[in-house]
């Protein structure tokens, strides 16, 4: 099973890559020892959004389905977590609320995906339908300010957003601060490795084949609609994971986290990073989130303009993604250097052989 980690559908492979992976992981684990609590909390916030980016990478980069619906399922799961956590009383039940909210998002994705995929919606129209559903949810939630808009004890509160839910907890221990940081790191590692095994498995090969030529994949005996629906559900479930974690982290969620500007952000992250590789998406999304947060401190408008400029530059200059392009360049240079070293060693050996005889 672990051989799937080094399959052909992912860029990073071999001892060198995994050595670098372990070094980065070790640095992430020891970071809270040297950083202050504010920076640790910021990094936890950045990590929350990476699940959404990885889900879009799976759908768009590997499955060929451009979805603007990541914030749709982010919002469904986030609001579901809030409703469940408030009505279940908080405490240890927040873990149950987290799992149930992700399941609700995946069920919603299964229903929407079924009608789209079996209805033959693909290409740009797939993005239009998912964007429309996202905007409908954001508009609806913005109209729920009255006291009648409640589910049990949980009020939706319209544009002011839902608040008052407990963070994740185990017994009397709340998962916040450094504990939340380590939970985020562990989840990212688990999700990243699981997705690598998925895309390098037989199922992943069919998903990629469906992206390249769905008619040919269907002629080979695969029901491509089932694989597309599976991809859509998994990718949307990861967006739901981001939504539930975001709500538990900040103990609030608003319709603005679902609307049009928010819906466009995952597209920018994944396009800039390189939608056809999980590692590039992971690294690039984190760098963009870090840069966006840094610029937002000075001007939110400037940060949004920068995101738009990055998307435009990516489409025009590096359609496969800047981070993926840099990664391939480094990998090619490293391979060429190793080949040159092997040739020189072979040449030295051939020169020594006549003298020895």
Describe the structure.
Helices cover 74% and strands 3% of the residues. α2 crosses α10 (260-273), α3 packs antiparallel against α4 and α4 (93-118) packs antiparallel against α9 (224-250). It starts with 13 loop residues before the first helix and ends with a helix. β4 and β5 form a beta hairpin. The mean pLDDT is 87. The chain contains 13 helices and six strands. The protein is globular. It has helices spanning 14-34, 37-62, 70-87, 93-118, 124-142, 177-199, 202-212, 214-219, 224-250, 260-273, 278-296, 300-317, 322-356; strands at residues 150-151, 154-155, 162-163, 169-170, 173-174, 252-253. The chain is mainly alpha-helical. A two-stranded antiparallel ribbon has the order 1-2. Strands 3-6 form a two-stranded antiparallel sheet. The chain has a two-stranded antiparallel sheet with strand order 4-5.
Q: In terms of per-residue confidence, which ranges show pLDDT below 50 for 5 or more consecutive residues?
A: none
The largest sheet has its strands arranged as 1-2
Helix-residue proportion? over 70%
- Average pLDDT taken over every residue: 87
Major beta sheet, specifics? 2 strands, antiparallel
Please tally the helical runs, counting DSSP H or I stretches of 4 or more residues. 13
Number of strands: 6
Shape, per Cα inertia axes: globular
Percent strand equals: under 5%
Radius of gyration: 23 Å
Report, as a whole number of angstroms, the end-to-end distance.
Answer: 48 Å
Helix/sheet category: mainly alpha
